[in-house]
Amino acid sequence: MGHGHHHHHEDMPQAAGDVPAVLDASIPDSELSPGDVSRRGFLRRAGLLGAAAAAGGALAGAGTAHAHGDDDDHAGFDGYDRHGHGRPLGNGYKWLAGDHHIHTQFSSDGMYRVSDHVRHASAYGLDWMVITDHGSTGHVKIGVDKVNPDIRAARDDYKDVLVFQGLEWNIPAAEHGTVFVHPGANEVAVLKEFENTFDGSVVGAVDPSLVTEALAIAGVKFLGEQVTKRRVQDALFLANHPARNGIDSPHEIRGWRDANPRIAIGFEGAPGHQAAGIAKPTGGGSARGFYGNAPGAASFPGYPLESYRTWGGFDWMTSTVGGLWDSLLAEGKAWWITANSDSHVVYEETAKRPDNTDFNANGYHFDPVYGQPASLTPGDFWPGYYSRTHVGARNFGYAAVMEALRAGRVWVDHGGLISALDVQVRAGGSGVTLGDSLVVRRGQRAELTIRIKLANTPNWANFVPTLARVDVIRGAVTGAVSDKDTFKAPDTKVVKSFEVNKSTGTVAFTYDLGPVDQPFYVRLRGTDGNRTAPGYHGPAVDPAGPAIDVVGDADPWKDLWFYANPIWVYPR
């Protein structure tokens, strides 16, 4: 921000637990940098140090800046590189687009080579990606090892794309999740040990009684231990398609996050399989995101039937203003959203698996055979073709992407709805961006500034999207909940909507957040305005939110949204 009160210090000693060292009372002041000693003193005087460390909440997970009295000009808003997201914005980060959920021929229901995905991801503008083949008894024996040379080759062949190795974890007693690690000598060994020990499918094949919620918590803690022991430089976990089958209960999500907030950082705000809802005869006529399910025996009984559908392509937990995501943010918990392809087989594909492939025998499929008639039934897009997760990284590197994801400097979009986004909350002369917390003098006024570079080139469906409206969503931070299965934030609602009355260039909006007397957070979303309806909690909360998607008729290109992660504001 250029105000001398920056955050997320890369050289900060890290605490042994899940909070930054500046918040860990076991680390003496003498071991901190002068800047962090000052920050610790400020937090201590403000009465925030103990509460933030104990909660592991927004102040612990996202860092803070504090507002002072002088006033600086807003930083500049620069353009982007050939991908539309590489050059720094005014906040000084490189905004890199990526996808953390991608399947190859080493998944039983996948088809493509690693190189196929990386080549397409590069062409469609991605800077980073994670290969996440399904955890299984076959994959743990064969896939983890055999896919690694292909990933390493792709790293050499495509210098413009960061290629992580991970897997799609069958979360014990729950849904799926992305697990991935920083590249290094032990990436295969750690992923194999994790899959053998904690994957619900693998463990269930040995003893189904061991597949419990406790095993999932142990898996998250194991990943943290591998980082602490320096077996891998870093590791992250994000829950995938959390509302698809209703089996990720609120208390499980809270449990994963609380087990280690530096490892369990969020969930898919929007699932993959976005082409699945295209109506017949031009598409498969299924449910967008393959969210066409109903409650089952393992489903959390509190979820309504509406939760089993996407809303404007987004998961119900994210799309509902005042819903489950907001209930976590209202606790002050750092919990982020992403969007990705979940690419297995793409819409309009002209390839197929060869007839002689035998995944069960080999642990992978033989290379695809091209030159087939185009298939309209697959529900997926190539990475970068439709869904993008933009992270504000310090540089182009693996560690920087993981740090940005953990910090919550993330916004997501569908269909290239916008080209760039710069969001800040400011007070006095200080400001913070996505994922951060701003601490201000009690009663001081805060201001939300939004700058958006509108879409200026056709997307991959060959039209230039038009942003119609931007919504500001605000919620009170009320602290920890006694009922871990709550999924409501009754104090969260849409407080302002900005109409966008131009189709090219840059738009800027300012919203007065008023005097800061109580802690709160704000987050943004935007829409092309094609399909809107009152939100799940009614028009008083969300007058024009995303509409529930119709099974069999949900063209993703006619219903585009972007969402941004929150910013917290705390009075001192």
UniProtKB/TrEMBL annotation:
<dbReference type="InterPro" id="IPR003141">
    <property type="entry name" value="Pol/His_phosphatase_N"/>
</dbReference>
<dbReference type="InterPro" id="IPR006311">
    <property type="entry name" value="TAT_signal"/>
</dbReference>
<dbReference type="InterPro" id="IPR016195">
    <property type="entry name" value="Pol/histidinol_Pase-like"/>
</dbReference>
<dbReference type="InterPro" id="IPR052018">
    <property type="entry name" value="PHP_domain"/>
</dbReference>
<dbReference type="Pfam" id="PF02811">
    <property type="entry name" value="PHP"/>
</dbReference>
<dbReference type="InterPro" id="IPR004013">
    <property type="entry name" value="PHP_dom"/>
</dbReference>
<protein>
    <submittedName>
        <fullName>PHP domain-containing protein</fullName>
    </submittedName>
</protein>
<feature type="domain" description="Polymerase/histidinol phosphatase N-terminal">
    <location>
        <begin position="98"/>
        <end position="173"/>
    </location>
</feature>
